[in-house]
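Below sits our specimen:

——
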Amino acid sequence: MSHAVAKKSQWGAADEWLSTHRKNGASRAGDEARALMQTLAWGAKVHALGTQTPILTLSILLSDALLDDEIINMACAHLANRARLDRELATSIVIAPLCLQSRIDLAYPKKMYGENAGPVLRRYKAYITEAERTRLFFPALINGNHWILFEINFLTKELRYADSRSHHGSIPKITVRNILEWLKHDFGGGFTNKGDTLPHGTQAFLDVSSCGVYAINALAHELFGGKLVSSKTMREERMWRFCDLAKAHNDYKLRQTNSTSPVGYATLSVEDLELLHDYNTTNLPSPVAPEVPKSCNIPPDPPVQISYSESATSDSESYLGSESDSVSESSSLAEYSSNLSDEMSVIDSTPVQTRKRVLSPVLPIGNQDEASKHLKLDHPSQNLDAPSVQSHPLYPFSGHNVPPISDSTHDVNKDKRTKRQILRAQGVIVSTVASRKLKQSMKDGTIVINENCRAIFEQKVWEHDPHAEFKYGVRWEVYHLLCSSWSTMKEAYDVTRFTKHLKSCISKGSSTKRGRKLKQVATLTAAGALDCWVTVARPSKAVGEPESNPAEQPISKAQPTRTLDTWAKKLG
């Protein structure tokens, strides 16, 4: 019951968000999103686009929350499906999932490239070089809270990316370094980092959760053209992305309803699938190989209307899947769809003349012989043009030569999911937004100082330096008597920079000059000579008086000073 209440509450919040933001030119997108929302079963799962995540995940698009990895992968899958229908794009580009970035980052510390590289990087290298793909697109997560889009052009040997917050000074230095190192070892090097030159929209200063929308829009703009998203159209873009993914889910259900030729598979447990991460594993269970049509029909031209028929699965053998290492990249990939080719373009069942296979703009599994070392198939394939086992797409652009898990193991696998996998982060920490607003108000001079917070701030400073001074304004500064210098705080009520300054300042006190100065300060403090020029005096406590709350302690007014310059000169 609690799960039903939580789901109803989240969908209710999405509906309220739609009602609030459907104006300002977004009424058409809002109406279509609301109509599609009524067709979704709240407790179902999204089986389309190479995933099996709860349908509730789509409600993230109908909010101002940060997009999670499932939404990013599904959105890239949808654009990959569209790219397949374009002859030029279908033979020139590759759209990779999030697992590519993680494997590039993992390979950098130990320089695991070339023959020592993992299966993901090896097969990407083989596919790009053998299929002669010229452009590679993939999303990346920076610092765990920011989405950007990367493009590698193998013709011009250029690396570009689209960062919607680059105007605020954010540069993905570590990720760029790791990518260039991979290109240097596996593709001969010579690549130039062009930086943030991929066309993209620009986030507003206080917008810290829409970077995923801007990254997906940048990919769509680069492939198909169209308008770049802005701060005014960002919420409308979220609505259209929700419509795209909801339609893909509904279309998948329609294909399953019309299908009359289901394919049976042997059941593999989650533990068996996890063995695929070990590239040297050979003792895997043998799945039952399904029957595959001998011919592969490919649509001659990008169709305007796509008809769904029982021949949907026959197109799957024209596409090669990705490799086993991407099983763990998404938090909800512990469960897999029980049907094949859920994201591929569907063609008419009328027999047509068999034509030469056209590679899709997606990641291949690579060498089938290499995969057969780890999965003992009943009929191992020796010819890529006529494989005996259809690949199961974990992504629309990546898949496995592993049969999907049937529904019989769904309940068992669900119990093994951790709480962290189920409750994925769907937003930004509230303190981050509050910190940005506080800095902006200090910059604009509109900050309203909270006296209690300021009293606590001064109390913390006085614990380290009883004779500290304060300056309040556009910048908050604290005067340290020992080194006679002012330290600028990061923001109001924050003493972190002052405490860091104390560590470096005290470490310098070992010198003879600083030691004499420290003794002078101690002597003057004991004699009470410094109390006459401290700007803000620390409240004194009588003998036997109980401890009080720092926020309730009175703050004395600034005292007139006349000996400040004299003591400053003496102390250096």
User: Anything to note?
Assistant: Residues 258-412, 419-427, 525-543, 550-560 have pLDDT under 50 and may be disordered. Residues 234-258 form the longest helix (25 residues).
